[in-house]
Amino acid sequence: MGKPYRYIGKATPRRDGAEIVTGRSHFVDDLRFERLLHGKVLRSPHAHAIIRSIDSSRAESLGGVKAVLTWENIPDLRYGNPRVFRLLDPKVRYVGDAVAVIAAESEEIAREAAGLVEIDYEVLPAVFGDYEASAPGAPQLYDEFPGNVLPLGDPFLGPKSMVEIATGDVESGFSEADVIFEGKCGYDNLPNPMPMESPRVVALWGRAAEGPDAVTFWVSNQAPYLMKAVLGSILGGNVDVRVFGGPCGGSFGSKLMSWQPMCYAALLSKNTGRPVKVVYSKEEHLAAFTLRPSSRLDIKVGMKKDGTVTAIAGDWLIGTGSYSQTTQAQVAVGCGEAMLAVRCKNWNVKPRIVCTNRTASGIARGFGGQELKCALFPILSRGMAKLEIDPLDFMKKNFIRPGEGYLWRNAQWYDYRGIDFTKMMDKGAEVFGWEQKWKGWLKPTTVEGNRRIGVGVGVHGNADVGEDVSEAYVRLDGNGRVVVHSCLQEHGTGQRSNALKVVAEVFQTPLEWVSMTPADTMVNPFEFGPFGSRGTYIILGAIVRAAEDAKKKLFELAAPMLGCDASELDTADGFIWAKTAPEKRLRWQRVLFQRTVLGYGRFEPDYSLSNCLMSFVEVEVDTDTGKLTLLRVVNATDVGQIIDPQGLEGQLCGCLGTAGIDSAIFEETVLDPLSGRILNANMIDYKWRTSSELPAIENVVFETPMPTHRFHAIGVGEIATSPGPSAVLMAASNAVGVWLDGYPVTPAKILSALGKLGSAGKIKDGANGK
Amino acid sequence: MKTFDHYDARSIDEALGLLGKHRGKARLNAGGTDLLGLLKDRVLPQYPELIVNIKTIPGLDYIEEDGERLRIGALARLCDLAGSRLLQERYGVICEAALAVAGPQIRNVATIGGNLCQDVRCWYYRYPAHLGGGMLCARKGRGPCFAVKGDNRYHAVIGAGKCFAVCPSDLAVALAALDGHMTLVSHRGERRVGVGDFFSPLRNVLEADEFVKEIDVPKASVPRLQRFLKFTLRKPIDFAVVSVAAVTEVKDGIYSDARIVIGGVAPGPFRAGKAEEELIGCEPGDAVAAQAAEAALEGARPLSKNAWKIEVARALIKRTVYR
Amino acid sequence: MTGEIFASNVESAAGDKQMSLMVNAHSYLLTVGNRPGEVDPAHTLAFTLRETLGLTGTKVSCDKGACGGCTVLMDGKAVLSCMLLTIECGGKEITTIEGLMEPKTGALDPLQQSFIDHSAFQCGFCTPGMIMSAKALLAENPSPSEEEIKEALSGNFCRCISQYQVVEAVKAVSGKKR
Q1: Which is the most buried residue in A474, B185, B234, C58, by most CB within 10 A?
Q2: Do B105 and C65 touch (CB under 8 A)?
Q3: In sequence order, which ranges of chain B are alpha helices (DSSP H)?
């Protein structure tokens, strides 16, 4: 079937491709500034301590040092949810917490100066475990949070954000069940989104044009407007914040948590009158920035023989580490995502967020839903196993369908108006060979000596595809070219190039006639940013509307010149004509002589649609060494309409990295149980997927038109990472024949599950060497 | 990196002179793939005042056989070892071990001498200074071994004392299985040390004024079976969780000689004498391989989280000895 | 600093120690020292390329030799510029991503074009390093197998998982000249 489109659905080169492959893409650290200073952070050696005194005089007197900031000489700036977390605090709450920031002529001088700051600490007992943190007598991180429990709810989501999953009556639900079971599961290995480019920013305080209370940021980020809003709210209402978004070397949500380095750079710049750059080292990135939240679910489930879930009740414990910026929002979205994936009339799941003495958790691809479902599906699996229900059938039966609904992040009920995803799930199963490979619960697909193969499946959907607001202008110039004004930031998804495609499609112009303003908050209208797969529906939707608005205005100008009604006109390749008289063509330039046409588009939030991705995985377990190898992944999804096939392929293959599938295989952050230090804060000990060990991946993509914008597309990139981890756990359990219920599935866990570590595994600490 | 003085040595004598003059405050640099990491993270108790480049010393990158021995200059790169026809044909474990190190870019600069002299990967020892200060431990001359009560999943299960870090060198394991020796030079003269004896729990035996000049291996009189296997969570990049090199001779259908060396389990390459005893005099086969594997780490005393390494070592021994 | 320390490098008439660095077929004469624009003995090649010579196409990510982002060619072989001291690179021929284009016409190397054609990148931060590793492979082995391509790229981190498309991009130009 031929596509009706000129560009949409076809492979077109990324607009920034030539810059990327030649090394001319200017990431933040590639920008050049005159008189640039380098900022460094002095970090705490203690997991929990009060700073009794700081003496920075020696550091200040080192040649080349321009400023040393501590909590004593900066304003009391606070951020987070709730807004109690100080930028620099007289109390430190994790090893690596910021104690002082230094600006110097070189990075090396700044680092040297950090070693000269003298601090007297009063060391406090620390707590690292989420359960331990809320136990009686646990060390308290904040006076504001007794028991280390943070309040739920995020004011940003509205007056009534989702703070629990509570619908129906769980007691009557349990009474309808054929089987009732209880289970606990944790997805608590704290993987790191770990974009390749670490957090980094250049700030310049004060500009001649905008006055002394203006600050400009060049920051590696995913959403300039959000950074502008965040920094504006921290620095105070009268500070004019401008944010440039250039190329970003990966974010996966995490870079939205850059308020600390941005504030460091801003204050250092304000103090020195010079631009200041703060670049986190990879070690800082891994140990002093942001991790996935930890998630532990302890629930009771009622299930019927046909796979109907009658009730789910229990507790969801979320660990946020030293502070929270968005953890409450992640909990709210996660709760909604659970309802999308598991149809159940009676829920009573109570989340609780605790803080501990480790670096903070925050945004990571999968925003709350991945964390919840990686714990939920392994528990549901126990019930499916009791009832001998095939998990594919369970997921097909229980994923949201038209005629149903769910509570979303603002605690409002939404009637789902999207499509039924069953067909694509069936196709994915067929491509994977599920029917042949699935042998039943805890049954391997094949056994050959010590090599056992197992399969698993997971599913995820997200109604964030329609979250928040986007605005755009589309400007038609006298020369017949089209300029899109949008603060859409390129962070790897290719969405800026996609925006050019949809606009070229609207005007039927050559693709190269369309260009886009830099993602600069000063010249562009509001844009929430490409999060949660919202780019395809909401951002492109706003841009399409702006383009259509501009086209309408263009036609209104052209109509009298062609002597007909605007509604009769059509355009392509810079000409306009009446559909009834196509031989009489008018050039855009004639219409736009000494004139600019500006179209405006805005898209309001719409939480009544969800995307869906199902991942099938096949793993091999070596029962001698305990090693798990991921052999094959089949992703199945329906995107409504492909915008760019290569870009989509890239997003779906992204299921492995960014704390996705591999968080079930080898990704984890290792915390020293005694000191709380993160031990694997480097790219050798923090494991990531290499080219020589790529599993086979096949992506099955359906295009059932979605009720979104005129191109009927829906985004799916964000959720690529989410169905996989629990699928791997399922596959590993089936391969081994024993339930595995911890991430990642390390060789030690497999050997232990197989009973191979016997007495040796039980030897207590310190037995060696005596 | 904090600055230092730098000198391109033209001869071993020149390098030795500088080591002597700077009394422990000079460090030799070959490939640099380990040293630069140590300097950047400020791991070493004493930051060097002088770096002596030894890549500028000519003629130290040979791989050649004489009448009795295979001789490898300390500056031979891992890519050279992996690509050497001589090694591929007669000393296969060296090639396998060289290819198992890190990734291609590292192998293009890292040297055999550097691989043997590299510092341990213990994550307590290597904790970077700029994340709240480094961790003073037994290996640094002051403090405990944090691994004992901490996260010791990768630490030693046998032969460790005050420090439970394991030998990170893959080449050491292969070379020990070939009965390799290292020639160390100082102004006091030369000494030969068995590769297995080069390592001890707190440090290697190289003195601050010594230079690793050459690695040698006896030529084999009879054909041998050689195999090196390395277990890691990922094939490239990673240091060995466990590695095994097995070099065996089979005469008249029975093992006449065997050297089995295990890496990643002890402060040095661990020679599994008990496993060797199980093999000698027996017919090759699954059963005897399993017995050897069972005996290999007899006496191992795992810490709280590293018992799994013993199981991995057994699996690897079975696979290296017989498959 | 003693006179002998840099004896192997050239001493200029003014008494400054100098070294020459050959990058992308251009010879740079650099002064050894710790003033701005000079090469400190502790400077890595990655630092010198980016900060002293302004060749920012080479990216630094882990700065510890574990991610391949800073890969350049040294005498034709892929090496990690974050783990080399600039002062030890005198006399070597360095090629960076900036050196791949046809110098006169500015035409892209076929490998670069193939990366564009296959959208073999997402965020693009790893791409220069990936291309340099692939370039070194193709120079040594113009018709590599898929396994050889994956092995050659095994030291290059990509968090977005562009590797599938990278392998296709390299395959598409293998067996071809240049």
Answers
A1: A474
A2: yes
A3: 12-22, 35-40, 78-83, 85-90, 92-99, 104-107, 112-117, 170-177, 273-279, 286-296, 308-321
Task: Determine whether domain B225-321 maps to CATH 3.90.220.20.
Answer: no
**Cβ(A498)–Cβ(A638) below 8 Å:** no
Kindly list the residues from chain A whose CB atom is less than 8 angstroms away from the CB atom of residue B161.
769
Report whether pLDDT(B194) > 50: yes
Domain A31-125+199-279 superfamily per CATH: Aldehyde oxidase/xanthine dehydrogenase, a/b hammerhead (3.90.1170.50)
> Mind telling me how many Å the CA of A124 is from chain B's nearest CA?
16
B124/A672 Cβ within 8 A = yes
CB contact under 8 A, B151 and A679: yes
Q: Give per-residue pLDDT as tens, A686-734.
A: 999 999 999 999 999 999 999 999 999 999 999 999 999 999 999 999 9
Q: Are C64 and A682 in contact (CB under 8 A)?
A: yes
CATH of domain A468-603: 3.30.365.10
- Arch. (CATH architecture) of A294-465+608-753: 2-Layer Sandwich (3.30)
- Residues A518-558: pLDDT tens digits? 999 999 999 999 999 999 999 999 999 999 999 999 999 99
Query: What is the pairing mode between strands B63-65 and B50-53?
Result: unpaired
Q: Which CATH architecture has domain B63-117+171-218?
A: 2-Layer Sandwich (3.30)
Taking alpha carbons only, the member of A601, A589, A590 closest to residue A481 is: A589
A494 in contact with chain C, both atoms CB, cutoff 8 A: yes
Closest chain A residue to the Cα of B2, Cα to Cα: A108
User: Which carries the bigger pLDDT value, residue C40 or residue A741?
Assistant: C40
> Closest by alpha carbon to A282, among C68, B261, B290?
C68
Is CATH 3.30.43.10 what the domain over B1-58 is classified as, yes or no?
yes
- Shortest Cα distance, chain A CAs vs residue B307, angstroms: 5
d(CA A101, CA A267): 9
- Contact yes or no for C61 and A27 at CB 8 A: no
Tell me the per-residue pLDDT of B230-289, one tens digit each, with 9 for 90 and over: 999 999 999 999 999 999 999 999 999 999 999 999 999 999 999 999 999 999 999 999
CA distance C151 to A690: 9
Which domains, from first to last, does chain C contain? 3-96 (3.10.20.30), 110-173 (1.10.150.120)
CB contact under 8 A, B149 and A112: no
Please list the residue range(s) of chain B that carry CATH number 3.30.390.50. Answer: 225-321
Tell me which of C1, C20, C88, C94 to substitute to probe the interface with B (most B C-beta atoms closer than 10 Å).
Answer: C88
| Phi, psi (degrees; rounded to nearest 5) at B230 | -130, 130
Q: Is C45 on the interface with B (CB under 8 A)?
A: no
pLDDT tens per residue, range B136-161: 999 999 999 999 999 999 999 999 99
How many Cβ pairs closer than 8 A exist between chain A and C? 175
